[in-house]
Amino acid sequence: MPDGVQDLPLVHPVYLRLLVAGAGAEGIGLAAWLAPLGLEAGLLARRKEAVPLALWRRLMLGLQRLEPRPGLALRLGRRVPLLAHGPLAYLMASSRDLRQALESLVRFAPLRLAVLDLQLRERGQRLELHVRPRVALGDVEGFTLDFLLAMLCTMLEQLHAGACQPATLRLPAAGSDTVCLWAEQGVAVERGSGRPLLVLPRALADGMLPLASPPEQQRAWRACEDAERELGWAASLAARIEQLFRTGAAARYQLAQVARELGISRRTVMRRLEQEGTSFSALVDASRRERLLRRLGERQLTLSMIADDLGYADAAVLSSAVRRWFGISPRSVQARLDAGLPPALAPKANSLAPDVVAA
Predict the structure, then answer these.
(1) Which of 54, 170, 325, 352 could crosslink 192 through cysteines, CB 3.0-4.6 Å?
(2) pLDDT tens, residue by residue, 60-117
(3) Smallest Cα–Cα separation from 106: which of 137, 130, 135?
(4) Are residues 239 and 3 in contact, defined by beta-carbon separation less than 8 angstroms?
(5) In angstroms, rounded to a whole number, what is the distance separating the alpha carbons of residues 118 and 116?
């Protein structure tokens, strides 16, 4: 995560404009809502500066008190189009699949959704997007989270038509009224514990998106990095290398290849990664481990084919790496994944194999 994220403006002005427009479309009297707050709809609609959290809370609280309509936050959130998310929308739309789109969302969420802390986790045959507020929202937390969760659902549907039909939203203390309100929006809800999370089947997460384009995705990634730099953030080299690993073949596990793509020397890559508290070898090892679990979960490749995909000489070398990572054989890892039990890392998982050290 970029340094200084806690100091970022918490709400992008486009969401303020869409909130006001959506409230008007819902038939809410804008003057009755905004005048007691000392605000005027026309000025808010033209606002270009980021919205402080205090103002956002006042607006949400005013809506709750003026118009306590069931499902209002959901309907307002569903009105936010994908294009409202700026360069992040372009990046997600050009991604290979929903998995890569969500990885991009998590990586660059502070550009547009800085109020949220998003985490992506894989559990067996499903992908989970965990959602929680980054800061205390007080008495408007429920309304704001409903608005933002509905916005995320719209984002997924506009990336992949019908994406929310097989997906499930897990909400703490979700009663029958909540289930019905979300069902009206085409989203299935289950009662969960802890923070909200959106669950996507692996088959859905790994399905190709209609606008997928690796060249466009790379350009969009750079545009998001440029947006970060404009905000004064220092994008980490490790994050850029991890992105290259996700979108490229095993040839990118070679230091010389990565250095060429980044336009810097191998020595500079190694020095800057050391400054960030990691190393090229560690990034390669982590990427291979993540890629292995994905390939085993897909059940489409033999162990020899997976070894080649990960840049290993043969299946025997891959098996040694798997035992180092998880302390069990590839067959046992496959069995745990099939049972929905992701394997735990072995105590020596972070020790690097000779071939990685020499990468």
Answers:
(1) 170
(2) 888 888 878 889 999 999 999 999 999 999 999 999 999 999 999 988 888 888 788 8
(3) 130
(4) no
(5) 6
Provide the CA 267 distance to its chain's centre, in angstroms.
31
Instruction: Report the Cα 105 to chain-centroid distance in Å.
Output: 4
Distance between CA atoms of residues 116 and 114, nearest Å = 5
Domains of the chain with CATH codes = 5-205 (3.90.1520.10), 242-357 (1.10.10.60)
Task: Tell me the three-class secondary structure of the chain, residue by residue.
Answer: CCCCHHHCCCECHHHHHHHHHHHHHCCCCHHHHHHHHCCCHHHHHHCCCCECHHHHHHHHHHHHHHCCCCCHHHHHHHCCCHHHHCHHHHHHHCCCEHHHHHHHHHHHHHHCCCCEEEEEEEECCEEEEEEEECCCCHHHHHHHHHHHHHHHHHHHHHHCCCCCCCCEEEEECCCHHHHHHHHHCCCEEEEECCCCEEEEEHHHHCCECCCCCHHHHHHHHHHHHHHHHHCCCCCCHHHHHHHHHHHCCHHHHCHHHHHHHHCCCHHHHHHHHHHCCCCHHHHHHHHHHHHHHHHHHHCCCCHHHHHHHCCCCCHHHHHHHHHHHHCCCHHHHHHHHHCCCCCCCCCCCCCCCHHHHCC
**pTM of the model as a whole:** 0.69
Would you say how long the chain is, in residues? Answer: 359
Indicate if the pLDDT at residue 266 is higher than 70. Answer: yes
**Confidence tier at 358 by pLDDT (50, 70, 90):** very low
**pLDDT over 90 at 154, yes or no:** yes
Encoded tokens for 66 = 């003026």
Residue 250 pLDDT grade (very low, low, confident, very high; cuts 50, 70, 90) = low
Q: Up-side HSE of residue 265: CA atoms within 13 Å toward CB?
A: 3
